[in-house]
């Protein structure tokens, strides 16, 4: 996030109505073209509201949004572009595909270049959807549907790609595969992307930069590795590294244990087996090893 001519310049306020009463969301940041920014923070921090303000789905109280040479929002000049005039691709966790359209038709519907099928062919190939192109969503797995949702978002040729927990409904293996597709897309299209995620390995693997939100405000920003582990960043796409932390909580959940570890400024929740969790104690200092898929804990 540079301070001069950034591709995306965002500043907005919005009064939030939360269970704890009214809270002012007040956020500003800049993002360079082609970068992936991750937004992390506890439930209710305002992550989805931030994406919705960007998309024009929620009205900001005040602020401005500039994307390249375009102004999407400027409350002092009464500019508020409707969603359909903002060049965004949006992917939510629940796919939101049209049930009656085939995979190919979903992409064709989204593409502004109706007479040029080359982008559709390229996306079907890139996302390995060629064999499924004449299927409707009901016949596809969750991971396949999410690949279609991603391809459809890119078929719009957006200036900004907004990903709101896009992988959270998927199992670990699917999630890992989808991350590879997101990286492939990034290498090919260099889209400026904002990713809301609760999942640190995903942020470490995909994002160039990150923001931690709490109660509608940015409390920290920087590279994912510096924010979440107090370390110098590893090579992008090779996010395996080790940090240390203190165990705050060990609690049984459905078939496993949730262990919360404080690392630098952040609390990281890990899901461990009973055998792994019983070897640990509260307040114990442990090492946490992040790799692309699963953080591991070493007593
Ligand atoms: N349009 C709105 N006007 C006022 N308050 C809102 C509006 N939309 C959401 N809120 C409130 O703002 C708070 C933040 O909601 P938001 O969905 O942005 O949080 P979040 O960080 O995305 O949470 P989660 O991780 O649970 O999805 C919530 O308390 C919500 O009730």
TrEMBL record:
SMART domains: AAA. One of its GO terms (molecular function) is ATP hydrolysis activity. Keywords: ATP-binding, Nucleotide-binding. InterPro entries: AAA+_ATPase, ABC_transporter-like_ATP-bd, ABC_transporter-like_CS, Molybdenum_import_ModC, P-loop_NTPase. Residues 8-240 form the ABC transporter domain. This is GTPase. It comes from Puia dinghuensis. The lineage of its organism: Bacteria, Pseudomonadati, Bacteroidota, Chitinophagia, Chitinophagales.
